[in-house]
């Protein structure tokens, strides 16, 4: 990715060294999960507990880990949790038929299809088959349309987790210059919409961006979500900037690393998320909040204003 290479600006001033405050995703997510659990208990007393069903196709090891973490978190929050496991050989119709049956199940408030699906399956078609009112991942075209048009709906979990951790640490995006590295529908594009809703000025960068480093150096907030280990170097970070590292990569030593050179960037950033322990836990916390929101709406219980997570 030579077009992402750092090119040092002539005459650049030395950076002022600071110590960045760690945005602890584990601790923040624990707060969110506690709030969700309390509201879930209230909902169960007046009606029934939220119901979440995860559809897992195949035996991808990473997916197995993620689903297990979601199952444990949802169970701890008092949800009714189920995982439907289908073999990697499942057909498109079998997967979509499973989703359609969950759409019709009144005790299921949230449906999550664990991605990626095995090769040969059309992920977009499967996602589109989810009832939008049960789309707790916020990925259907209906959910995306609501986000873009500024209407309330179920927000994508990872971008929502990014906003929530900023909110809970007093980082105001209004008037800030935000650079998002990555244009996926999972993180980059929806985060840009959420930041715009907070009155930020947003630049989306990607693999064809010229002089990515220069864009980053001008940013008040950097959101790295491109899947390139340690792409964002310390010299790319403006002193006092906020850095959200959404990337999860496996290093040569087997350890998880982000898209940001954490050691170098934390020396100049005002706030920074670690990997692991940053945005990952917040993603699961927002999944629980979305499921609670979907359940309350389907049961006709007004909880808006009490459910954690950003709104438009």
UniProtKB/TrEMBL annotation:
Residue span(s) of domain Tetrahydrofolate dehydrogenase/cyclohydrolase NAD(P)-binding: 156-296
Q: Does the keyword Oxidoreductase apply?
A: yes
Gene Ontology cellular-component annotations: cytosol
The reaction(s) annotated as catalysed by this protein in its Swiss-Prot or TrEMBL entry are: (6R)-5,10-methylene-5,6,7,8-tetrahydrofolate + NADP(+) = (6R)-5,10-methenyltetrahydrofolate + NADPH; (6R)-5,10-methenyltetrahydrofolate + H2O = (6R)-10-formyltetrahydrofolate + H(+)
Tell whether Lipid metabolism is among the UniProt keywords: no
Recorded hits in InterPro entries, A to Z, give:
Aminoacid_DH-like_N_sf, NAD(P)-bd_dom_sf, THF_DH/CycHdrlase, THF_DH/CycHdrlase_cat_dom, THF_DH/CycHdrlase_CS, THF_DH/CycHdrlase_NAD-bd_dom
Which sites bind NADP(+)? 182-184, 248
What is the E.C. number? 1.5.1.5, 3.5.4.9
Please provide the Gene Ontology terms (biological process) for this protein.
Answer: L-histidine biosynthetic process; methionine biosynthetic process; purine nucleotide biosynthetic process; tetrahydrofolate interconversion
* The Tetrahydrofolate dehydrogenase/cyclohydrolase catalytic domain, residue ranges: 23-137
| Pathway connected to this protein | One-carbon metabolism; tetrahydrofolate interconversion
Question: Which residues constitute the signal peptide according to the record?
Answer: none
Organism domain of life: Bacteria
Q: Which GO terms describe its molecular function?
A: methenyltetrahydrofolate cyclohydrolase activity; methylenetetrahydrofolate dehydrogenase (NADP+) activity
PROSITE patterns for this protein: THF_DHG_CYH_1 (PS00766), THF_DHG_CYH_2 (PS00767)
Sorted UniProt keywords = Amino-acid biosynthesis, Histidine biosynthesis, Hydrolase, Methionine biosynthesis, Multifunctional enzyme, NADP, One-carbon metabolism, Oxidoreductase, Purine biosynthesis
Function description = Catalyzes the oxidation of 5,10-methylenetetrahydrofolate to 5,10-methenyltetrahydrofolate and then the hydrolysis of 5,10-methenyltetrahydrofolate to 10-formyltetrahydrofolate.
Subunit-level organization: Homodimer.
The record's similarity note reads: Belongs to the tetrahydrofolate dehydrogenase/cyclohydrolase family.
Query: What name goes with this protein?
Result: Bifunctional protein FolD
């Amino acid at each position: 990715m030579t077009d992402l290479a750092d090119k040092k600006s002539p005459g650049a001033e030395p950076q002022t060294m600071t110590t960045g405050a760690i945005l602890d995703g584990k601790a923040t997510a624990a707060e969110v999960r506690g709030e969700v659990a309390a509201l879930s208990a209230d909902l169960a007393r007046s009606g029934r507990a939220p119901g979440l069903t995860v559809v897992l196709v195949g035996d991808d090891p990473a997916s197995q880990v993620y689903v297990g973490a979601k199952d444990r978190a949802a169970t701890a929050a008092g949800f009714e949790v189920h995982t439907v496991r289908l073999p990697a050989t499942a057909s498109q119709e079998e997967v979509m038929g499973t989703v359609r049956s969950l759409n019709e199940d009144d005790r299921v408030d949230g449906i999550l299809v664990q991605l990626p699906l095995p090769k040969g399956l059309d992920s977009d078609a499967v996602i589109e088959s989810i009832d939008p009112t049960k789309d707790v991942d916020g990925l259907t075209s209906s959910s995306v349309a609501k986000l873009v048009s500024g209407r309330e709906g179920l927000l994508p979990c990872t971008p929502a987790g990014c906003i929530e951790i900023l909110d809970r640490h007093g980082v105001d995006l209004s008037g800030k210059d935000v650079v998002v590295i990555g244009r996926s529908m999972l993180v980059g594009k929806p985060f840009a919409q959420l930041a715009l809703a907070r009155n930020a000025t947003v630049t989306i960068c990607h693999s064809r961006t010229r002089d990515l480093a220069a864009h980053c150096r001008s940013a008040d907030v950097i959101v790295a979500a491109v899947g390139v280990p340690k792409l964002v170097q310390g010299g790319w970070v403006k002193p006092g900037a906020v850095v959200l590292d959404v990337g999860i990569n496996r290093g040569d030593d087997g350890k998880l690393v982000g898209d940001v050179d954490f050691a170098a960037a934390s020396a100049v950033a005002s706030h920074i998320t670690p990997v692991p322990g940053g945005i990952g836990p917040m993603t699961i916390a927002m999944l629980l909040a979305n499921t609670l929101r979907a359940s309350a709406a389907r049961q006709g219980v007004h909880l808006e204003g009490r459910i954690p997570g950003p709104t438009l």
